[in-house]
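One example given next:
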Amino acid sequence: MEFTKMHGLGNDYIYVNGLKEKKKDWSLLAHYLSTRHTGIGADGLILILPSSKADFRMRMFNADGSEGEMCGNGIRCVGKYVYDNKMTQKTELSIETKAGIKQLFLTVLNGQVQEVKVNMGEPKIVSSKLSILLPNGKEFEGVQISMGNPHFVTFVPTLTDEDVLLSGPLLEKASCFPNRTNVEFVEIINQSHLKMRVWERGSGETMACGTGACATAYAAISKGICFPEVKIDLLGGSLFIQWDPKSKHIFMTGPATTVYKGYINLRQFRQNIYQR
């Protein structure tokens, strides 16, 4: 099976052209291929498929094999993949996801996509003030937001490993989130600048999260913390988020990078799986 390793600000995925590959157990493959010591290593797997509603369709699987609704960093790389591999000549694309159809605007330099702006749609506040007391005794207050996938955004004085690595997994699986949630820990720099670390549902801490950055920006905007245009620093770099009050849509702009292409012998790989 041919694959391409790509990342958006270090949020890395294994990309497979589903227009060429036959149907497989993608959940199982995502889990084992994403393992960094015995597989390719990634935050998950993304399939590029045909669509009857848009230019292409995207399916994304987390590193644990669970299927997610949407991935902001991942969809930017989908735009780069289809353009750079000459599957389209369009620089404005529509991509079908489980969170709806997203519009992409590609910035091309020397025939290669460098940056992608995505219309991420309308954020929806599920709860404007949610307090969660964890088994470890820590309490977090935050905003529950849907970007087509679930997010819990909590503002903290300083970003710490203790919060992200110890409280992150507990918040992800808190009883108030029956389908689990993505968790964003946010430090306020000023009204146009935020810092964020994310514990992603099904993948753990990642270098960046596009939907999480959008959820974070909207939570801050709705609380009057920041302006409608904000820079968000993540471990892997920065995303620029804009909220349009007229359309009520939020836009995300950031890079997309191809790391390498490869081929995996699935027959041998399956043998290795079943020997474990």
The longest helix spans residues 72-84. The first strand starts at residue 2 and ends at 8.
